[in-house]
Design goal:
The chain has five domains: 2-94, Sandwich (Immunoglobulin-like); 99-170, Immunoglobulin-like, CATH 2.60.40; 174-304, Immunoglobulin-like (Sandwich), CATH 2.60.40; 418-519, no CATH class; 559-647, no CATH class. The protein is 7% helix and 40% strand. It contains six helices and 45 strands. Helix 1 (332-339) crosses helix 4. Bound molecules: zinc ion (ZN) (2 copies). Residues 553, 557, 589, 591, 626 line the site of one zinc ion (ZN).
Length: 655
């Protein structure tokens, strides 16, 4: 049996001497050795303790060191007593300490040579200023070192033993970004980092901080850096182009210490490769869309070894819900506009269809009412939108929008939906055409858009109340649905028979009619819900451009546009002026009058014909202008005044 032991170990060797021999007084240990710096001497020892008819003999030896030029030697022993030999163990005795020395071609000590050692796996060791590196021997086994790139062995002077030496060549190498990968991240196609999304270990391109890992690179291969070698980092933002948003602040973060960019947009730092030849640092990119940082690294302070280009983007998702049978709108024009403010707008899940007749009574109406004979159309407004927004699966919360498409958007909740016609006088000669073309005693009135044969509120009667009374007060009665014909935003009222009978043939007799009807408010083109702006209604019975512009406009509101006061602006942008922002003037919410002359705009109040009224101004072409219907002059883009404010929004939640 062979045991492996380190040099200089102390061993206790023993043997049991059997009966018949045990009456001898002593036994002799004899050694046989191949190698080793000294010889173990034989020893004659007295027999000791007894066990039955056996007696024990023991000795202690300290193993000699290996010779300087050997890794291992062998040792064996035997015990002789009374002419009988008792064989002992064999030992392999291994070096316990050794070191490696690197010299250059001139024979001078070479510092910073990386090497691995077979007993310690991939761990890197580096020669010191004397060119030396102790070998971390931890096993009684062969000890072998491998010099690593960018260094290579030209010639071994001694490859075994206590002092190993080689002539080594050290090549130059670079400190380059290895993660994120540099491929495909050129200056004109920077890496997109989605700064509005939560940090997620499984989705490394999320969050406003990016971790950059550095490795070494020779002219032929990627290598670990040399532990202790310096790495220089330089971040460059275009000081004139970056957002004025200042929270969180852009910065270089090395080992938890932060360097903000100077007035030129530059932040610099220095670090070292760790004992695995790795290094990493963080960059706080800020949360403004479109900002680009160039991340330069190098093994020298010139930082010319690699450059990573990173640009801040934001990602938002939407669910598209459409009335059954309706083609989903193409949102290409809108997504192109969002591209310019560094927002990716992505449909999540399949388009959801609302089945016909789904929803509260009155939601679906006869298309003939608005000139689309043979169709059933869906109206969604403040009174029934909760039902339809119930179809929203907010799978990407809080970054997801419900785009609820409808054929019309009339609101029927709230005040201002009753239209009264009071004391309308009718004589036997007050006549109008009934639905069948016949003349009837009665009258026709225009109520306006939102007035339909049935109420959009609940599908019931559009007649709220109606009554008539004779001029002498002797007779009266109710106006019922049958007395009204409603079409094209008008109603024709024919007098009830009793009233006609009262008028008879007497042209001087009169009846007075009071009538109140229901008229929904609108039509609107879309909305972002007042308190939950991620819930939108978009009318799609429009040209594609208008649908897109409405959808983009409402998303603009969802993204808190157009800010009116410092408090509504992104942090750091309180004093940045928009110049054409306004509220009111015939529109609801914060809007943009880009294109309007300064005098007409008048600080947002309007002057002359513009005073308090910005409606219908063809020179206003921004998506965030307050109106957007057919014939709109909207360019389909957010204007240059609006862009910085949209880019400056964090968009880390739409909730
Ligand atoms: Zn608006
Ligand atoms: Zn604008």
């Amino acid at each position: 049996m062979t045991a492996n032991v380190f040099e200089e170990s102390t061993l206790t060797l023993s043997a049991w001497i059997a009966r018949g021999k045990g009456d001898r007084a002593s036994a002799k240990f004899e050694f046989e050795q191949e190698g080793g710096s000294e010889t173990v001497e034989a020893a004659e020892l007295e027999l000791g303790g007894k066990d039955g008819d056996k007696k024990k003999v023991s000795t202690q030896i300290t193993l000699p060191k290996c010779k300087d030029d050997e890794d291992v030697y062998t040792l064996s022993y035997k015990v002789t007593c009374g002419g009988v030999e008792y064989p002992g163990n064999d030992f392999k005795v291994w070096l316990k300490t050794a070191k490696f020395k690197a010299v250059d071609s001139e024979g001078a000590a070479l510092k910073g040579v990386p090497l691995t050692f077979n007993q310690t796996g991939d761990k890197l060791y580096v020669t010191d200023s004397a060119g030396e590196c102790p070998l971390p021997i931890n096993a009684t086994a062969p000890a072998k070192i491998t010099v690593r790139s960018p260094c290579s062995v030209d010639e071994w002077t001694t490859e075994v033993g206590r002092l190993r030496e080689a002539t080594v060549t050290k090549k130059e190498y670079k400190a380059v970004v290895v993660d994120p990968a540099l491929e495909d991240n050129a200056e004109d196609t920077p890496l997109r980092q989605y700064t509005n999304l939560k940090v997620d270990a499984t989705a490394p391109r999320q969050g406003s901080k990016i971790t950059v890992t550095i490795g070494g690179m020779t002219d032929t291969e990627c290598i670990p850096g040399i532990p202790g070698d310096p790495i220089y980092v330089k971040l460059e933002w275009d000081k004139d182009a970056v957002s004025k948003r200042n929270d969180p602040k852009r910065a270089l973060i090395i080992d938890g210490s932060t360097v903000e960019p100077n007035d030129e947009g530059v932040a610099e730092g220095e670090m070292k490769f760790d004992d695995k030849g790795e290094a990493s640092f963080e960059v706080e990119l800020g949360q403004a869309g479109g900002d680009i940082v160039k991340i330069h690294t190098g093994i020298t302070s010139a930082t010319e070894d690699s450059t990573l280009h990173v640009q801040n983007w934001r990602r938002l998702w939407y669910q598209l819900t459409v009335p059954k049978g309706t083609d989903e709108p193409s949102l290409d024009r809108m997504t192109a506009a969002l591209d310019e403010v560094f927002v990716e707008y992505i449909q999540e899940g399949d388009t959801v269809e609302v089945p016909e007749d789904d929803g509260p009574a009155g939601s679906w109406f006869d298309g003939a009412w608005i000139g689309e004979d043979g169709k059933k159309l869906l109206n969604v407004g403040d009174h029934n939108k909760t039902h339809f927004h119930g179809k929203f699966d907010d799978a990407k919360t809080p970054h997801m929008v419900h785009v609820m498409c409808c054929h019309t958007q009339y609101d029927t909740g709230g005040a201002g939906t009753q239209v009264d016609f009071l004391d309308v006088e009718v004589t036997k000669d007050t006549k109008d055409k009934w639905s069948d073309g016949s003349d009837v005693i009665g009258f026709k009135k225009k109520v306006g858009r939102g007035f339909f044969p049935k109420s959009l509120k609940d599908g019931g009667s559009s007649l709220i109340s109606g009554s008539w009374e004779s001029d002498d007060g002797s007779e009266s009665g109710d106006i019922e649905d049958e007395h009204l014909h409603i079409a094209d935003s008008h109603f024709t009222l024919k007098l009830p028979d009793e009233a006609v009978t009262y008028l008879g043939d007497d042209a001087t007799k009169k009846v007075k009619v009071d009538i109140s009807v229901f008229k929904a408010k609108g039509p609107y083109l879309g909305e972002a819900d007042g308190t939950k702006k991620y819930l939108q209604l978009i009318v799609i019975r429009l040209s594609e451009n208008v649908s897109n512009d409405v959808a983009a406009h409402e998303l603009g509101h969802t993204m808190k546009q157009v800010p009116q006061a410092a408090g509504g602006k992104p942090p750091g942008m309180g004093t940045v002026t928009h110049g054409r922002e306004y509220t009111g003037n015939g529109h609801q919410g914060g809007h943009c009058a880009d294109g309007m002359a300064s005098g007409d705009y008048n600080g947002g109040a309007g002057a002359g014909t513009y005073a308090g009224n910005f409606k219908g101004k063809k020179e206003c072409t921004c998506i965030m202008y307050g109106e957007n219907g057919e014939g709109s002059t909207c360019t389909g883009k957010f204007c240059d005044r609006c862009k910085p404010f949209i880019k400056g929004q964090a968009l880390d939640t739409l909730h």
